[in-house]
Specification:
22% strand; alpha/beta; single chain; 468 residues; nine-stranded mixed beta sheet; eight-stranded mixed beta sheet; 13 helices
C-alpha cells in the first residue's frame, strides 16, 4: 500500500513568515498617551519605506509605526517576491487623467524601472539580506491567443516608456532554453525584475528603522482618526502628520468602497533535487508568469523550491481579509495542477499553502494622496504590483508631506482618485463573475487553439474596469 503524502502546512501567515518565526524582532504594544511628528498606520512595505524616507529627509523627526497585528502581517509578508517594474495601474488611464498625457505615464513607468535598482541599492547599503537577485522575468504564452496578447503588451510597454532592451519577445525554442515549459509558444522577457524573500525584506526594513530611531508598535490597531488624534484600543497618539499605509486592510480608515481586498494564494514545493532542476531547465532565479487570463506568478527560491501563486477564490463577501491565510484545498489543487502542466515529467510535493489580500481600486489604479492642510495622506491600491509600488509610494508620500519637490511628486498617480466600488452584493457578484469569465475564456482558448482573445475575457475586463 502506498503511503499518503502528508498534508501541507496551511495558512500561518505563509511560508516566508514561518521561516522567520524564531528570528524576527518583536515590537511592543502601544499604551498610554503620546505625541509624534509623524504617525504611520500599517507595518508593511509602504509604511516602513515612508518612515525610512521621512527620517532620511528630516533625521530629527519623531516617527511611530503602528501595526494592528505584527510587522509584515499583510501582503508584505505573503507576496510572490517580485520586485518588478510593473506599474500599479493602467498607464493609458493615468495618461488620460494627467495634463502630461502619454509623457506623464512614461515618466511613471520610468520611475518604476528606476525603483527596482534603487531598492536593491538600499538593501545593499543597509546590509539587508532578502535573498535578492536581479535576473529578470519571463512571461510564457501557452496558447496562440496568449502569444497575441503578449505582442500587444510589448507594444504598449514600448509606447509607455520601456525600451526594446527592457522588454522583448522570444520564440518557443529560446524560451525553453531558459525554462523548459512543455506547452509554451513563446514569451516575453522583462529585464527589470528581481526575486526576493518578502518576509526578509519587511523585517530587514523594520530592523533598519529601529536603528534610525523610529518607534514600531505591534498589536496596536488604530480604530479611528479624528483630526490630529489617533485612537487605539490601549491609548491615544497625537500626530502632526499621519500616513495611512494599510493597502488591502484600508476599509475601516479610508472607506469600504475606496478599495477592496482581493485574495491571492500561493503554494511552495519542498526543495527539488538537482536532477529535477536539470529536467525543468530553470537554471537561474528568473521570475515566471504566464499570459493566461487567470495568470500565475512564480519564483525559484534561494533554497531550491518553486513558489507559485494565483488568484484562487478571489474575494470574500463584505471585504473579508482572511486572517492568517488558510487556503481552500480547491485552490491548492488548482495551483498544483498548473505547476504540473508546466512541468509534467517532474514530481512535486507541496510543502506550504497560504493566502493574502491585495488592495484593488475600482479601476485597478493606485494612488498617492496628500493633504497639506489636514496633514493626512495615504498610498494604496497596488493591485498585485506592490513590492516596487510600496517603495515608490512610501517615498513619494514622505516627499509630499515634507515639501520636497521631486520627479516623483508630479507623477500622474499623485492625487489620482479611482471611482468607488459598488455596494454589496453587487461587488461580490461582479468580482466573482469577472474571474469566472476569465476561467472560461482560458478553457475556450486552449480547447479551440484560438488565435484571438475570447470575447468572454474582453467582457470580463470591461466588467472589472481593467479595459483601457
Amino acid at each position: 500500500m502506498t503511503a499518503l503524502a502528508a498534508a501541507p502546512r496551511n495558512g500561518e501567515l505563509g511560508f516566508w513568515m514561518v521561516g522567520l518565526a524564531d528570528k524576527r524582532t518583536s515590537y511592543p504594544r502601544f499604551t498610554g498617551d503620546d505625541s509624534v511628528d509623524l504617525a504611520i498606520i500599517g507595518g508593511g512595505y509602504t509604511g516602513l519605506w515612508a518612515a525610512y524616507f521621512a527620517k532620511k529627509l528630516e533625521p530629527s523627526l519623531s516617527v511611530a509605526v503602528f501595526e494592528a497585528e505584527q510587522i509584515g502581517y499583510g501582503a508584505s509578508g505573503r507576496n510572490g517576491g517580485w520586485l518588478s517594474a510593473m506599474p500599479a495601474g493602467n498607464r493609458a488611464k493615468f495618461a488620460r487623467a494627467s495634463e502630461g498625457g502619454v509623457e506623464a505615464s512614461r515618466a511613471l513607468q520610468q520611475e518604476f524601472v528606476a525603483g527596482v535598482d534603487a531598492v536593491l541599492d538600499i538593501l545593499q547599503a543597509e546590509g539587508i539580506d532578502a535573498d535578492q537577485k536581479k535576473s529578470g522575468a519571463l512571461v510564457a504564452a501557452h496558447t496562440k491567443a496568449g502569444l497575441g496578447r503578449l505582442v500587444a503588451r510589448r507594444d504598449a510597454d514600448w509606447k509607455y516608456g520601456l525600451s526594446e532592451d527592457d522588454v522583448y519577445l522570444i520564440g518557443r525554442d529560446e524560451f525553453q532554453k531558459e525554462i523548459n515549459i512543455s506547452t509554451v509558444h513563446g514569451g516575453l522577457v522583462y529585464k527589470h525584475c528581481a526575486r526576493l524573500q518578502p518576509a526578509k525584506l519587511v523585517h530587514g526594513l523594520a530592523d533598519t528603522l529601529t536603528s534610525m530611531g523610529v518607534s514600531i508598535y505591534e498589536g496596536s490597531r488604530v480604530g479611528s482618526i479624528d483630526g490630529k488624534t489617533l485612537t487605539l484600543d490601549s491609548g491615544r497618539m497625537t500626530a502632526a502628520k499621519t500616513f495611512v499605509c494599510t493597502e488591502g486592510y484600508s476599509g475601516q480608515l479610508l472607506g469600504s468602497r475606496s478599495l477592496i481586498p482581493i485574495n491571492s494564494s500561493m503554494i511552495v514545493t519542498k526543495p527539488l533535487s538537482d536532477e529535477a532542476w536539470q529536467q525543468i531547465g530553470w537554471k537561474g532565479p528568473q521570475c515566471l508568469s504566464d499570459s493566461a487570463h487567470t495568470f500565475i506568478y512564480a519564483q525559484r527560491t534561494a533554497d531550491g523550491r518553486i513558489a507559485i501563486g494565483g488568484r484562487g477564490k478571489p474575494y470574500r463577501y463584505g471585504s473579508g481579509t482572511g486572517g492568517a491565510g488558510a487556503t481552500a484545498q480547491s485552490t491548492i489543487d488548482l495551483l498544483s495542477t498548473k505547476l504540473r502542466t508546466f512541468f509534467p515529467d517532474t514530481n512535486f510535493e507541496v510543502d506550504h499553502a497560504w493566502s493574502g489580500v491585495l488592495g484593488v481600486t475600482r479601476d485597478w489604479n493606485g494612488g498617492v494622496q496628500w493633504d497639506q492642510a489636514s496633514g493626512f495622506g495615504s498610498s494604496t491600491g497596488y493591485a498585485g504590483h506592490g513590492v516596487t509600488a510600496a517603495y515608490l509610494g512610501g517615498r513619494t508620500l514622505a516627499e509630499l508631506a515634507f515639501e520636497r519637490k521631486t520627479q516623483r511628486t508630479s507623477l500622474p498617480w499623485v492625487g489620482y482618485r479611482a471611482p468607488k466600488w459598488e455596494p454589496e452584493p453587487i461587488r461580490w457578484l461582479g468580482v466573482h463573475g469577472m474571474y469566472r469569465l476569465f476561467g472560461v475564456a482560458d478553457q475556450w482558448e486552449e480547447r479551440r487553439d484560438s488565435t484571438k482573445t475570447s470575447l468572454l475575457a474582453r467582457f470580463g475586463s470591461r466588467l472589472a474596469g481593467l479595459h483601457e
